[in-house]
Specification:
Residues 2-47 form the HTH cro/C1-type domain. Pfam families: LacI, Peripla_BP_3. It comes from Lentibacillus populi. The protein has helices at residues 5-12, 16-24, 31-44, 50-57, 78-93, 104-109, 113-119, 135-142, 166-179, 195-210, 227-238, 252-264, 298-313; strands at residues 62-67, 71-72, 97-100, 124-128, 130-131, 147-150, 159-164, 185-189, 220-222, 246-249, 274-276, 293-295, 322-324, 327-329. Helices cover 43% and strands 16% of the residues. The protein folds into three domains: 5-56, lambda repressor-like DNA-binding domains (434 Repressor (Amino-terminal Domain), Orthogonal Bundle), CATH 1.10.260; 62-164 and 299-324, Rossmann fold (3-Layer(aba) Sandwich); 166-296 and 328-339, Response regulator (Rossmann fold, 3-Layer(aba) Sandwich), CATH 3.40.50.2300. Strand 8 (185-189), helix 10 and strand 9 (220-222) form a beta-alpha-beta unit. It is elongated. The N and C termini lie far apart (74 Å). It is of the alpha/beta class.
């Protein structure tokens, strides 16, 4: 029979609370009491359960991972996968484990994220951006529960977020193209209501206008950050009255889809149309030609999110948000003879 904390307390002739204090090395107990309880634990081979530890310390050392929104990135998106891996390693070094939330069943049952965080005695949550954010995410953000978001602007009293400086993403692209005399640029964005894509689009238009580069409505198309949508968007751009010199997609996955559409039409890249993406996922190095992109520092974003969440949990800092600078990475799909 598996022993409980009450069984140990009975054998040691102390209260369950005293046993909890011995296990968690807390409270003021005499050396004699501590040694007596430890001796019983050693003799019986008792292992305190996770729930017993959590109850005694008020901390579970568990972090929730939420892929937010009706349309979410989930685990198959290379960018978010890399950020989460970095976060997982950093938060693990800080002494936490992770619990991944499932959206579907709990949504149908009407159980929200906050209730589940309390149910599992979580210490905090990492929220990964999605589109059409559900009310349950907003409720969690507006509570006192410690949360850090990736590419989602959390505004709650105990929330922070980490994101790339998305205005600089498009600024770097347009400036590079202008300096290389490329003025006819098409844009493939994420969903029109996407927080990140909207910032990149607004910055793209603002910087195009700054340099006197005309923005054509028929060259602005939208996808869902994944490859097939980039393929479809590229086909719509090619169906326009005139072809652009360059296509800029706000995710590498969509840019790779666009590359497939161009190859299908036997349009050469970069000779006929140049192509640039965003994120710098691993596949960029191995496409033909290698994909030019704007690198987001995924490792840094994951580490920052972990340390910020740890500090929020331990009330060591006030909620604050961080923007990480991007870096333009020039590869074959958007190269110019003048830069070689």
């Amino acid at each position: 029979m598996k022993l409980t904390i009450k069984d140990i307390a009975k054998l040691a002739n102390v209260s369950p609370g005293t046993v909890s204090k011995v296990i968690n090395q807390s409270g003021n107990l005499s050396r004699q009491t501590i040694e007596k309880v430890k001796k019983i634990i050693e003799e019986t081979g008792y292992q305190p359960t996770f729930s017993a530890k959590a109850l005694a310390t008020k901390k579970s050392n568990l972090i929730g991972l939420i892929y937010a929104g009706d349309i979410n990135a989930e685990m198959n998106h290379p960018f978010f996968n890399d950020v989460v891996n970095s976060f997982k390693n950093a938060i693990g070094n800080l002494g936490y484990d992770m619990l991944v939330f499932s959206n579907n069943k709990f949504s149908k049952d009407g159980r929200d994220y906050l209730a589940r965080c309390i149910h599992f005695q979580l210490d905090g949550c990492l929220i990964i951006a999605g589109d059409r954010i559900e009310e349950a995410t907003n409720e969690l953000d507006q509570s006192d529960f410690p949360c850090v978001g990736i590419d989602i602007a959390l505004k709650g009293p105990n929330s922070s977020y980490v994101t790339t400086d998305n205005r600089k993403v498009s600024e770097a692209v347009v400036t590079y193209l202008y300096l290389n005399r490329m003025k006819e640029v098409a844009f493939i964005g994420g969903p029109e209501d996407s927080f990140v894509s909207s910032i990149r689009k607004d910055s793209f238009i603002r910087n195009m206008e700054l340099f006197g580069m005309k923005v054509k409505d028929e060259w602005i198309q939208y996808g869902d950050y994944f490859e097939d949508s980039g393929y479809a968007a590229m086909k719509r751009i090619l169906a326009a009255s005139k072809r652009p010199q360059v296509v800029y997609a706000v995710s590498d996955m969509m840019a790779l889809g666009a590359l497939r559409a161009l190859k299908e039409k036997r349009i050469r890249v970069p000779e006929d149309i140049k192509l640039i993406g965003c994120d710098d996922i691993e596949a960029c190095r191995y496409s033909d030609p290698p994909l030019a992109t704007v690198r987001q520092d995924k490792d840094k974003m994951g580490k920052l999110a972990a340390h910020m969440l740890h500090d929020l949990i331990n009330e060591e800092v006030q909620p604050n948000s961080v923007m990480v600078d991007p870096q333009l990475v020039v590869r074959g799909s958007c190269s110019f003879d003048s830069i070689h």
